[in-house]
Design goal:
With about 325 residues, this protein is of the alpha+beta class. It folds into two domains: about 100 residues, Phosphorylase Kinase, domain 1, CATH 3.30.200.20; about 210 residues, Alpha-Beta Complex (Aminoglycoside 3'-phosphotransferase, Chain: A, domain 2). About 45% of the residues lie in helices and about 15% in strands. A five-stranded antiparallel beta sheet has the order 1-2-3-5-4, with helices on one face. A two-stranded antiparallel ribbon has the order 6-9. It starts with 8 loop residues before the first helix and ends with a helix.
Length: about 325
């Protein structure tokens, strides 16, 4: 979450020359990135113009060495992801100023901030296809890091910085989620590769439908249900943090038609929505406190997820298999 790396035209010309993708026509920084620096690049090669995304890794990918192979696997499976382009030496990862860089094709489409039911359903189908495409993949992938010990540690770091009511909400939710993650039926849930960060600013749409899913840097081995929980918290809640039943059911039904959810997954979805909301509330709180301490970091507002946590605690979202098969 460091400051953006500034590149000028000579830096970019020298960098993309190693890829053989044509001459630089135009470039501009992407504004949505939080953890890495990204530049859109337009090149011309024999009269043909193409657009790429150059990513400068400001910190190591949480997916580690699995990041590039995972994107390769998704590309081969026909999923709409931005596959990594190799340089002229055949290497997927290059360097700029001692930082790792990646080049990928720029996918068409735009981010949506008030998704329709059709767009939510398209995301559900993508998540199911992603889970199916990766379920037999044996490549070493880190375990999802936001475990019960992580939650307890992060909560201890931030709780004294919170006002009284927020601190009470945090303490109660940490207890509930810690209890959840210690349950045997949770450990028995289907596991596999999770994206871990399926927010609206990581998905692209055009008039035809879903055109791209971005940012697999948080991919890990974890509980598959967690991806649906993270997506629902961002795609299916209103400005107060309250869950929208129509959007949530559309997401889950679309997923369920491709990879049927087990009875335990259906029963535990509301609890995992709370778990996902708590994990991102804590993550954003930690970064916000670093920023207040004077570190130059980019972050999102933690109050957004505090509202979602509060609504999950106040309103139980009922779900059963009959509703998914309706």
């Amino acid at each position: 979450m460091n400051a953006i790396t500034q590149l000028d035209v000579l830096d970019l010309e020298h960098t993309i020359a190693r890829y053989g993708v044509g001459d630089l026509v135009r470039y501009w920084p992407a504004v949505n990135g939080i953890e890495n620096s990204n530049y859109f690049i337009r090149t011309s090669d024999g009269g043909r113009e193409r657009e790429f995304v150059l990513t400068i890794m400001e910190q190591p990918s949480n997916a580690g060495g699995a990041y590039v192979p995972l994107l390769d696997l998704c590309t081969k499976a026909g999923l709409p992801v931005a596959g990594i382009i190799r340089n002229q030496s055949g290497e997927a990862i290059d360097r700029y100023d001692n930082k790792l860089i990646l080049l990928s094709q720029r996918l068409p489409g735009k981010h949506v901030y008030n998704p329709t039911l059709n767009q939510v359903a398209a995301l559900g189908r993508f998540i199911a296809r992603f889970h199916i495409a990766t379920r037999s993949w044996n490549h070493p992938v880190p375990d999802y890091p936001r475990t019960a010990p992580w939650i307890a540690h992060q909560a201890a770091l931030v709780r004294d910085q919170l006002p009284y009511l927020s601190r009470c909400l945090l303490d109660d939710t940490v207890k509930a989620v810690s209890h959840l993650l210690a349950r045997r039926d949770v450990s028995d849930l289907p596991h596999g590769i999770v994206h871990g960060d399926l927010f609206r600013d990581n998905v692209l749409f055009n008039e035809r439908g879903l055109t791209g899913v971005l940012d697999f840097h948080h991919a890990a081995r974890g509980v598959l249900l967690y991806d649906l929980a993270v997506a629902a918290n961002d795609w299916c809640t209103d400005s107060t943090g309250l869950t929208n039943p129509d959007r949530t059911m559309e997401l889950l039904r679309a997923y369920h038609r491709i990879r049927p959810l087990t009875g335990a997954e259906i029963r535990l979805f509301p609890a995992f929505a709370l778990y996902g909301a708590l994990a991102f509330w804590l993550s954003r709180l930690s970064v916000a406190i670093e920023r207040e301490a004077g570190r130059s970091v980019r972050t999102n507002n933690p109050e957004e997820f505090e509202r979602i946590v509060a609504q999950h605690r106040a309103h139980f979202f009922y779900l059963d298999e009959r509703m998914l098969n309706a």
